[in-house]
Amino acid sequence: MDWLGMLDDHWGWLVFAALLGVGEVLLPGVFLIWVALAAAVTGLIALTLPVSVPAQLLIFALLCLLSVWGGRRWYAANPVNSQDPLLNDRTARLIGEVVLVVEAIEAGRGRVKVGDSVWSCRGPDAPAGSHVRVIGADASVLQVEPA
C-alpha cells in the first residue's frame, strides 16, 4: 500500500493527528502534541482546499516548525510548576546543609564531606574536622561559611 496515497484524502492527516495525540498521552513529553496539531491543521486544509500531496507535505512541515516553535515559546513564558524544583540541581539542594571539612580550607580552598562524597569548596579558612555551612555553589564547587 502506498502510504502517500493516504494523504490524498484529508482523513489520512486527521488519523495521523489522532495517532500522534494518543502517542502523546502514552508517552508524555509535550512534543508530539505540537506535531499532531500540525497534522490536524493540514488535514483541515486538505479538506477545504484542493491541495496536491507535495503541497500538503510542505504545509505539514511548515506547520510543524511553527507549532513546535510556538509551543516552546509558550512553555518558556508559562513554566510548569514542579513539586520539587531543585530535583535536578544537586548543588542548590545542599544550600543550608552543615558539612564536615575533610581537607583544611586554606587560602580560600579546601574539601568537604557531603554524605558519602567529597566536594571542593571555597570559603574562609577552617581546619580539617570543623563544620561549615553551604551558602552557595559555583558549578560543582561549594561556597561555605563557618557553622
From TrEMBL:
Annotated localization: Membrane
UniProt keyword annotation of Glycoprotein present: no
Keyword Glycoprotein attributed: no
Entry-linked InterPro entries: Membrane_assoc_protease, NA-bd_OB-fold, NfeD-like_C
The name this protein goes by in its record: NfeD family protein
Broad class of where this protein is predominantly found: membrane
Annotated NfeD-like C-terminal domain residues: 92-146
